[in-house]
Design a protein that fits this description.
Layout lengths: L1 H5 E2 L11 E2 L1 H4 L4 E4 L7 H13 L1 E3 L6 E3 L3 E4 L5 H6 L5 H7 L16 H16 L5 E2 L1 H9 L5 H15 L4 E2 L6 H4 L21 H19 L4 H7 L4 H10 L7 H8 L1
Parallel strand pairs: 3-6, 7-8
Antiparallel strand pairs: 1-2, 4-5
Helix pairs in contact: 6-8, 10-11, 11-12
Length: 263
């Protein structure tokens, strides 16, 4: 970590085969973003404080300081003030970093950002996975906006990556989303003892269908999108699996899988 941030001299440690500039030197005259700064060990916090306070860095293995002029932006999902109280984050470093404090609300409190973020991640994973998914349906987007994202933006990215990997069509539909997102409550279907039966009764076929669909989606995901393997996980025939995939519109059956069934 020290080498990455402040650089090193050739021969200063095993593997240091050449001089290397650290991130502070590379960012000289610009901005250095330190993500998850609350995870830095105390030994590095001391050196970071010196760099910020004195505006100099010293490469590992060197005896000379280099002047730097760097704007620092730091981010964390931890409570640094609480860490200061418990001695896991230096108080002096906290005050040097905490000049202008911007608190970003959790994703669940800024649902209007979700379409922009989801569109960005859709393009990112289209390119990375060689897919050509054109859009996210209005119904699927409504579900994405309703979900509460305990894992924040990283969870949204994971959801889009997973959905792009499994989606066979040109549009992400509600049924394409993970089960914990595409249920009306944004959570997994409750077990039988949690389902209330009111005086008006309930639609048993609808409830059972929802449970069946969730298990199918979960099995398909566990099987990496291979429907034949998913059928084995559920202990049903491939013919039965194909019927259910078509019934719940869970994607397409590949020609290879159809050939396997015929064989």
């Amino acid at each position: 970590m020290e080498s990455e941030m402040f650089g090193h001299k050739k021969g200063s440690f095993t593997g240091a085969v050449a001089d290397k500039a650290g991130l502070f030197e590379v960012a000289d005259g610009g901005t250095l973003f330190l993500d998850e700064v609350g995870e830095l060990p105390l030994s590095i916090q001391v050196k970071l404080l010196r760099a910020i306070q004195e505006r100099v860095v010293r490469r590992v293995g060197s005896t000379e300081d280099s002047k730097i002029e760097v704007r620092i932006m730091a981010a964390t999902n931890r409570d640094l003030e609480d860490m200061v109280k418990h001695g896991t984050f230096r108080q002096d470093l906290f005050y040097r970093l905490n000049v202008i404090n911007i608190k970003t609300p959790p994703l669940r409190d800024r649902s209007d950002d979700i379409p922009l973020l989801a569109g960005h991640f859709l393009k990112k994973y289209n390119d990375r996975l060689g897919k050509n998914i054109q859009s996210i349906s209005d119904e699927a987007m409504a579900m994405l906006k309703k979900y509460d994202y305990p894992g924040n933006v990283r969870e949204l990215e994971n959801i889009i990556e997973r959905t792009v990997a499994l989606e066979a069509g040109a549009t992400i539909l509600p049924e394409s989303l993970p089960p914990f997102v595409n249920t009306p409550s944004g959570r997994k279907v409750a077990s039988a003892h949690e389902i209330e039966i009111s005086e008006d009764g309930l639609d048993l076929d609808k409830v059972m269908g929802q449970i069946e669909k969730e298990l199918l989606v979960k099995a398909i995901h566990a099987a990496g999108g291979v429907k034949k393997k998913a059928a084995k996980l559920l202990n049903i025939t491939f013919r039965s699996m194909r019927y259910r995939v078509e019934k719940y519109n869970l994607g397409t059956i590949t020609d290879d899988e159809l050939d396997d069934e015929a064989g």
